[in-house]
Each structure stands twice: as structure tokens, then as C-alpha cells.
Amino acid sequence: MDKIEIQLQKIESLLSKIDVTNEKVSKASVGWHLEHLLLILNSSLKGLTMTNPKDYNPKFSLKKFVFLNFGMIPRGKIRAPKQFIPLDVPTQESILKLMNLAKERLKAVENLPEKSFITHPFLGDFDRKTTLRFLWLHSNHHLKIVDDILK
């Protein structure tokens, strides 16, 4: 959990820069990337609490293996599902609200069974530990984009 908590601290430190853009790096602002990763984080953490561990059905996938072991997400190649695209221009308040919810949900999943899971639309079922790795990798991907926007 600590890795994601460190990312949440970094997001908090970036709140004053949410309106910064750099078209050479991304069409989206710093705030968009932060809000997007928090929407994914919150949805996935909630999802872990809503599945029946008995239904966990992992399947091998080369994409899943590469992503989870090497953390490779190609930039600009994958479109976020509509429910994970910020609806409005992100504000410090909207990002803080999502961040506080993420902190609560992180605590809530600590004691869930290991086979609690989410189903990723492209990569299949992730158990609790794998979900947390996925969330860290996905957040890291967007935080790297944010770092590049701010360079």
C-alpha cells in the first residue's frame, strides 16, 4: 500500500500545477492526468470490495504478463473508457475529494481476502495484490506524463 500512498502525496504536491499543459507531451492538462488516475484508482478499489473471491478466474495473457512485469504502457495508444475521463475541468477541490476517497478505499481493501478481484477490460481478472500493482503502474504511467508536461 505504501507505494500508492507515496503517489497520493505526490499528487497533493502537484495541486498548484493542475492547469499546466504541454501539447508536445499530451493534449491533456496535469489536472486531467491526476483526476483520471484517481478515477481509475477509486473505481478499482471499490471493485475489489464488490466481487466474490470464489469467482476469481485468472487467465494467462502475454499483454498482462508484459504489463505487470515490465510496467510498459504505450503513450497515446490506449483510450480511457468514458467513465474514467474527467467530465469537467479538474479543480483542486475535485482532485482532493478523489484523493481523500482513495485514501479511505486503500484502508478498506487492506483486510480483504487475497482472491478479491477486479476484471480489467483487456487484461482479465486481477486479485487484490495484482490490482494494487496494476494501480501503482497505471498511476506511475500518468505521473511520468505529468513530470514530462512540467519539464
Automatic annotation (TrEMBL):
InterPro entries: DinB/YfiT-like, DUF1569. It comes from Epilithonimonas lactis. The lineage of its organism: Bacteria, Pseudomonadati, Bacteroidota, Flavobacteriia, Flavobacteriales. This is DUF1569 domain-containing protein. Pfam families: DUF1569.
